Amino acid sequence: MTDTEVLRYTAFSHDPEGGNPAGVVLDAAGLDDAAMLAIAARLGYSETAFLTAPPEGLEGPAGRSFTVRYFSPKAEVPFCGHATVATAVALAERIGAGELLLATRAGTVPVSVTAEDGGRLRATLTSVEPHIEEIGATDLAEALAALDWPVGDLDPEFPPRIAYAGARHLVLGAATRARLADLAYDFARLEALMRRLDLTTVQLVHRAGPAEFHVRDPFPVGGVVEDPATGAAAAAFGAYVRELGLVPADAVLTLHQGEDMGRPGVLTVELRAGDPRVRVGGEGVRIP
Fold first, then answer.
1. From the CB of residue 142, how many other CB atoms can be counted at a distance below 10 Å?
2. Residue tagged active-site, from 5, 17, 47, 142
3. Are 12 and 267 a contacting pair, CB within 8 Å?
4. Cβ(174)–Cβ(205) under 8 Å?
5. Which residues lie closer than 8 Å to 45 by C-beta, 6 or more apart?
6. Could you give the CA distance from residue 18 to residue 261 in angstroms, rounded to a whole number?
7. pLDDT in tens, 173-184
8. CA–CA separation, 240 vs 168, rounded Å?
9. What b/e readout covers 61-99, taking b as 16+ CB neighbours within 10 angstroms?
10. Considering 1, 133, 203, 268, which has the largest number of Cβ atoms within 10 A of its Cβ?
11. Closest by Cα among 241, 228, 227, 244 to 269
């Protein structure tokens, strides 16, 4: 494990001081679960991605298909959007921009990497097929109590739901930007609820315009207070707003995340009529 090269990239920003940092291990062959968890814990980022050879039968571009697993400092997670973007950018720097195919525990995830003006790299992942479900009144009350959010601080146009696009997230709408900015929650209490409901994060959202949102993601189950930019939650949120008719069937949404943490990032969420999957994109860059 001491010889394993662990790369550090940030996702959803071109600034190493912005977005969400992730660890990337491009060659995890020979690492068992305990070793991967230990690396993720030592690094301390919300997730680290570990790549190995693709499974037999995965039909992807030669030399551009991989198996990927994601570990937080406390546990493995089935899918992580920002670590996927970070991994795709790291791969593109070595094998060139283009199409990638990743076999994750949540399903197969295609990723497209393009070179932007000035050589910046941008990665766009396509989620597995998403769905949303209602949350029970007792569980919702417990979530609000853990967050210390009165019911009146919720945006009635955004009914609480659990959304999935590779991982499960509870979506709660904040009526004001000030409510979203004031985040101080009971870590242990929210973690206990999230473990019981198999949630990865809580996606807190405030609508700033027809296609513009500010979001925050408490992540106690991962061992961190807050995730700076959450691609998996962005994909789940895209499914949520589409199913509830809050945006057009064809839409490109802009999500601002990390501003209240001092790590601003921008996530682009694309919805296409007739395709249930959600596309989430953003820039990425290596952290010196």
1. 18
2. 47
3. yes
4. yes
5. 8, 20, 21, 22, 23, 73
6. 10
7. 999 999 999 999
8. 12
9. eeebbbbbbbbbbbeebbbbbbbbbbbbbbbbbeeebee
10. 203
11. 241
DSSP 178-247: HHHH-----HHHHHHHHHHHT-SEEEEEEEEETTEEEEEEEEGGGTEEEES--HHHHHHHHHHHHHTTSS
Nearest one of 196, 234, 195, 201 to 218, comparing CA atoms: 201
pLDDT beyond 80 at 2: no
Span 47-78, pLDDT tens digits: 999 999 999 999 888 899 999 999 999 999 99
Encode pLDDT of 152-163 as tens digits.
999 999 999 999
> Nearest CA to 246 among 205, 206, 204, 211?
211
Which residues, including other chains, have CB under 8 Å from residue 17's CB and lie 6 or more apart? 10, 263
pLDDT-derived band at 280 (thresholds 50, 70, 90) equals very high
Q: What are the backbone dihedrals phi and psi of residue 77, each rounded to the nearest 5 degrees, phi first? A: -120, 150
* Tokens 């967050």 found at: 147
pTM, entire model: 0.95
> Which two tokens mark 187?
């870590």
Q: Would you say residue 1 has pLDDT above 60?
A: no
Is 243 considered catalytic here? no
